[in-house]
Design brief:
Helix content is about 90%, strand content about 0%. It contains one helix and no strands. The chain is rod-shaped and about 30 Å long.
C-alpha cells in the first residue's frame, strides 16, 4: 500500500514539474 501511495505521489510531482517547468 505504501508503494502505491509513493507511485501516486511521484505522478503528482511529475505533473507538477511538467506544469511548472513545461
Amino acid at each position: 500500500m505504501v508503494k502505491y501511495s509513493y507511485e501516486i505521489k511521484l505522478k503528482i510531482v511529475q505533473a507538477y514539474l511538467n506544469g511548472e517547468g513545461g
